[in-house]
Specification:
The protein has helices spanning about 1-5, 25-65, 80-85, 95-100, 105-120. By secondary structure, it is mainly alpha-helical. It has two domains: about 1-65; about 80-120, no CATH class.
Length: about 130
């Protein structure tokens, strides 16, 4: 597409066969196109091999129990109590974040997880301690 459609000349210093500036005749263009296609094929195969080896490595690491990604932040022991105080209006949201030592987005994520657990347990009033 580059050499024929747009008319770009390609020059690879290490490979004089790929110099399309010289030899604009039929044979020179044919050889340059052929070598470009071969190099393109080799590069694509190498990318597929790398991707496959990477997937195999990830699968092997998971089988060994390796966990990927950032570790989860710790939830304080009294997280449920802090949330209840906040819901009742006894403490402000900034104090909740400070006492929990987490960001706003992490707090809301943990709150959502807590609600899922409450839904599984059934009675949110009886659940005061949450484990994550």
């Amino acid at each position: 597409m580059l050499t024929k459609g747009i008319g770009i000349d390609i020059c690879v210093m290490d490979m004089p066969l790929l110099d399309t500036r010289n030899g604009k005749d039929l044979m020179g263009t044919f050889i340059a196109d052929l070598v470009l296609q071969i190099l393109s094929f080799v590069a694509e195969n190498e990318r597929e091999n790398i991707r496959r080896r990477q997937q195999q490595g990830i699968a092997a690491a998971k089988m060994r129990g390796v966990r990927f990604g950032r570790p989860k932040s710790e939830v304080p022991e009294d997280f449920g109590g802090i949330v209840e105080e906040w819901r009742e209006g006894k403490i402000k949201f900034d104090e909740v974040l400070e006492r929990c030592q987490m960001s706003k987005s992490t707090f809301y994520r943990r709150l959502g997880e807590m609600r899922e657990i409450e839904g599984e347990v059934g009675n949110s009033q009886s659940v005061k301690r949450y484990t994550f």
